[in-house]
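TICKET: design request
STATUS: open
ATTACHED STRUCTURE:
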């Protein structure tokens, strides 16, 4: 079978699509035939930076596919499934034709959207929902999401609105204002200086942007980025996504209820994985880059 691997860190030239042995699932694993995955910031950072498991390293966190073999109750051949694998810590990358997935991180895929679109949900959706659990927005509060049309930011805007809080968004360029409003953001701007001073009870930073004076004194600030936390925000906190099949199942329910929209900006075959990384790193795309298998 095919897998996207790297033997060293570096530019897109280190990405290799090669033949590797098919995995043999253990008793607690389900063998999934991959239909699609997606490109996330952690993927290019793992490729480019000195981080991750041993070489040769199979990349990828998102998985959408069809069960090929299972001895685990609750999963049968032909089932449509999704999962998020913590590739950095577990070494289990999903950019392969077949993946032996621990059943504990696997859940049924959305029924309403194609599997190729569902591949954009796991990591971004879990990051958004888990980070918002730390932000703790409540009715009557005003919340800012930076990077409001990104893979995580767009989902975070939609999920935060469900709390009853007013949600605003900061985007990177004027062309993205409409998309953020479509996601449910109230005030949308591409300039930090346009944000009202002292207006926000909480900020979810998905883009590495300091909110400046817009955060109210004592306000909550949660970042999902690799940037250092602002030293002038005493309540600042970092969040790193964790595997969570139950949380992913909740997101799937929202997608099927048409209460959460997943946006895809480009579909590329896995053989064009280098081009996929180029598109992702160029930025500015509305929606995620999906790899199809």
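STATUS: resolved
RESOLUTION: sequence designed for all positions
ATTACHED SEQUENCE:
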């Amino acid at each position: 079978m095919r897998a996207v691997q790297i033997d060293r860190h570096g530019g897109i030239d280190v990405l290799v699509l090669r033949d590797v042995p098919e995995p043999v699932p253990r008793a607690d694993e389900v063998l999934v035939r991959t239909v699609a995955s997606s490109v996330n910031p952690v993927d290019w950072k793992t490729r480019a930076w000195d981080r991750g498991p041993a070489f040769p390293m199979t990349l990828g966190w998102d998985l959408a596919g069809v069960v090929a073999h299972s001895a685990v109750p609750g999963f049968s051949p032909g089932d449509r499934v999704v999962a998020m694998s913590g590739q950095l810590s577990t070494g289990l990358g999903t950019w392969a034709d077949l993946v032996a997935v621990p059943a504990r991180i696997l859940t049924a895929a959305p029924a309403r959207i194609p599997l190729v679109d569902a591949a954009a949900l796991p990591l971004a959706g879990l990051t958004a929902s888990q980070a918002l659990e730390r932000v703790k927005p409540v009715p009557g509060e005003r919340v800012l999401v930076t990077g409001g049309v990104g893979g995580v930011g767009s989902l975070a805007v939609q999920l935060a609105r469900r709390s009853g809080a007013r949600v605003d968004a900061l985007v990177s360029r004027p062309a993205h204002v409409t998309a953020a409003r479509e996601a449910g953001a109230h005030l949308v701007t591409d300039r930090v200086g346009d944000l009202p001073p002292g207006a926000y009870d909480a900020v979810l930073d998905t883009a590495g942007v300091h909110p400046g004076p817009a955060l109210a004194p004592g306000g909550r600030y949660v970042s999902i980025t690799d940037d250092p936390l602002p030293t002038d925000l005493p309540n600042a906190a970092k969040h790193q996504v964790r595997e969570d099949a139950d949380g992913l199942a909740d997101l799937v329910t929202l997608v099927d209820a048409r209460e959460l929209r997943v946006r895809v900006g480009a579909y590329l075959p896995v053989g064009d994985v280098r081009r996929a990384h180029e598109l992702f790193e160029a930025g500015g795309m509305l929606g995620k880059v999906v790899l199809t298998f």
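CLOSING REMARK: The chain has two domains: 2-121+262-292, 124-238. Helices lie at 41-48, 87-90, 115-118, 122-135, 151-161, 177-182, 245-256, 273-282.
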